[in-house]
Give the backbone structure.
Amino acid sequence: MTTSTLFAFSVSERWNDFWHGSIGEWILTRGVRVALLLIGGLLAARFISWAAARVVRHIDVEYEESDAVVRSEDAKHRQAVASVISWVAIALLSVVVIVEVTDILAIPVGSLIAPAAVLGAALGFGARRFVEDLLSGFFIIAEKQYGFGDLVALTVNGIPEVAQGTVEDVTLRVTKLRTTEGDMYTIPNGMIVKAMNMSKDWARAVIDIPVPTSADLALVNELLHEVTERAVDDPGLKHLLLDAPQLMGVERIELGTVNLRMVARTLPGKQFEVGRRLRVLVLAALSKAGIVTSPASSPAVEAIVHPATVAGAAEETQGPVGRR
């Protein structure tokens, strides 16, 4: 019994001496504060990410519960802004935590200025690219060049091929595109030379229709006019068209063929779907009348995107037409 009492007293005395020693005093005065700062910063960063994800989910729910066929320009911009704000907030929070930790640990920041200057000069070239990415990303989002869900074609500096796909994420530093094959492009914003947005406010499907020169053009025009009139009532087109397709007439004359052009104004990003459906209707109408296209070519579909629109053009052009 006496031995146990002496052992317990010895452990208690050592424990008390530890907390009154230099290490214990450092843990109580500084270590706990550093730990609380790191844990608080981590929790705050998790909260910021959660809040940004909640905003994005709310925007997605609004779109899914609405009758809109495509996302509005405001929804795309809000989603991009939410991502950028969360990224900037976490970056600022990290800087604040680091500054507070250095202050608690009494690290002389002044003595680090000279090494930091040397390190900054060494990393200057790499940091220049990083700053270019941030500035380019800021202007992409501020000018609403493109946003989440837009179909874009990006010309990247030093790469001959154009990166085309759907925007899945855009931050201050990078833009992420998903191609039709499912591949993901991650492109630094500072390397983007030209951006073509193919789903900005509205788009236009252009269908070139080659017919033999021996065909009766009056009959062909009549058939194509019937196609344009029926297109607005077609179940696969009436929710995608902003107005009835227009027949532009003869576009060019080639050896053995005459090319006629039909154009249709569509919801943003739906020009390819509309072009494919119109091509089916045109082929069906011509085949029914016994008119065949040239064996060397078939009706081609391309898309011309409206270059620039004023603010509010999405609402004016889409309006109730974009509703089911």
